[in-house]
Design a protein that fits this description.
With 405 residues, the protein is of the alpha/beta class. It has a single domain, classed as 3-Layer(aba) Sandwich (Rossmann fold), CATH 3.40.50.720. It contains 14 helices and twelve strands. Strands 3-2-1-4-5-6-10 form a seven-stranded parallel sheet, with helices on both faces. Strand 1, helix 2 and strand 2 form a beta-alpha-beta unit. Helix 8 packs across helix 12. The radius of gyration is 22 Å and the shape is globular.
Length: 405
């Protein structure tokens, strides 16, 4: 009988971490104090800007490393100090990290295609090596590295068992340069942890929510649905979570995570059908009716990669990496993060709905499709008090929610 999951101790210092947990030693726990200087690389990105906002809410002095020429509007309102520097410039990264107590490294190329694939390795691997060197040189107290669940093995998922941090990857299933480069980068982070660097690893699942300006590949699913560019869907499963919960998971890893230990931070495992049904139910737009067989999705990916990617030198409409992933059940178990660092997440429904609202409200959806939308629920009106006030203002006066006390 085949094992349901290939498991090993993947992270440096894992044995020490396990014994620390059993003994109750909390010496590795740190406190984020108001005024702490905290560097965030990739701070203009979807998750990075959410981390910057969460840090700012805790009173931290946030230093945002901003790549040259990148749209940095996601940092508006954060009060972050913006430092323009290329993550590939080791000297510039060292200068930014000098004097920082903590560093969050989120900068990465997160997409399925690039004209020159070397960019994935220059940024995702080379940039990570620069950050590791800068943290050592600057005497920073702790590094939180953002990896990805894409580096984990999914053999168990094929049999309905969610993958966790102990499932190692089948290298032949690391589709595309993004996953491969992040796998190599995580190896370098774990090597640094084994050599004594205080680093904790966060593995986000698939984020949705507001301020996905890119959009990311995950947000593009929502946006393509809203714009009517998703005529069919694949039989796949995703773990969906709100981007702001991922941000708080990063802070929890900083303060309570074990050195050299990995934590999946996620939400709910949803089939693509369920995700689209939620979007359709919320927006009033029709759901795609056709489920594409995996061989057909692969054929579309091969054709798109060849014609659009190689011949026309533009981003494929159906990237081959995405087509390959469409046949995978990407389900994950984040119990370690919930048990050890106190991670929590809201219902995936709220992430989906807030993502849809944000794209519509910020001009990403065509006028014709906007006119067809009929919002069926307000994600901001779920609690009793808000519902009470809404009904009160529309003259449908309910009994006070606090009456009878």
């Amino acid at each position: 009988m085949r094992p349901s999951c290939h498991r090993v101790r993947r992270q440096g210092g894992a044995d020490r971490a396990e014994s620390t947990l059993l003994s109750g030693d909390v010496s590795s726990v740190v406190r984020l104090e108001p005024g702490n200087r905290v560097v965030v690389t990739g701070a203009t990105g979807f998750i990075g800007s959410a981390v910057a906002r969460a840090l700012q809410a805790r009173g931290a002095q946030v230093v945002a490393l901003v790549a040259p020429g990148v749209d940095d509007r996601n940092l508006d309102g954060t009060g972050a100090e913006r430092v323009v520097a290329d993550i590939r410039d080791a000297a510039a990264v060292r200068a930014v990290c000098q004097g920082a107590r903590f560093v969050f490294h989120l900068a990465a190329v997160y997409r399925f295609w690039a004209r020159d694939p070397r960019i994935f390795y220059d940024v995702n691997v080379g940039g990570t090596l620069n950050v590791l060197g800068a943290v050592r040189a600057g005497g920073c107290e702790r590094l939180v590295y953002t990896s990805t669940v894409g580096v984990l093995g999914l053999d168990a998922a094929r049999h309905g068992t969610p993958a966790d941090e102990t499932c190692y990857a089948n290298l032949s299933h690391l589709f595309g340069h993004y996953k491969r480069s992040k796998f190599v980068a995580e190896h370098e982070v774990l090597r640094a942890a084994a050599q004594g660097l205080d680093v904790c690893l966060v593995l986000p699942t698939f984020p949705l929510g507001p301020r996905d300006v890119g959009p990311t590949p995950t947000g593009k699913v929502v946006l393509d649905f809203l714009n009517g560019r998703l005529p069919a869907f694949a039989d796949t499963t995703l773990n969906v979570t709100h981007v702001d919960d991922l941000a708080l998971g990063h802070l929890a890893a900083l303060q309570r995570g074990r050195s050299g230990r990995s934590y999946i931070v996620g939400g709910e495992n949803l089939s693509m059908r369920a995700l689209l049904q939620e979007l359709a139910g919320y927006s009033g737009l029709p759901m795609p009716r056709v489920q594409v067989p995996h061989p057909l999705a692969l054929a579309a990916g091969v054709a798109s990669e060849l014609i659009q990617g190689r011949l026309l030198r533009r981003e494929p409409r159906t990237p081959l990496e995405a087509a390959r992933m469409s046949g995978t059940k990407m389900i994950f178990n984040d119990e370690r993060a919930r048990a050890e660092i106190g991670y929590t997440s809201r219902p995936a429904r709220e992430a989906i709905e807030e993502s849809a609202r944000w794209f519509v409200d910020h001009g990403y959806v065509s006028a014709a499709r906007r006119a067809a939308i009929r919002w069926r629920r307000d994600p901001l009106c779920r609690n009793t008090v808000t519902q009470y006030l809404l009904q009160y203002c529309t003259h449908d006066r309910p009994e006070s929610p606090t009456s009878g006390r």
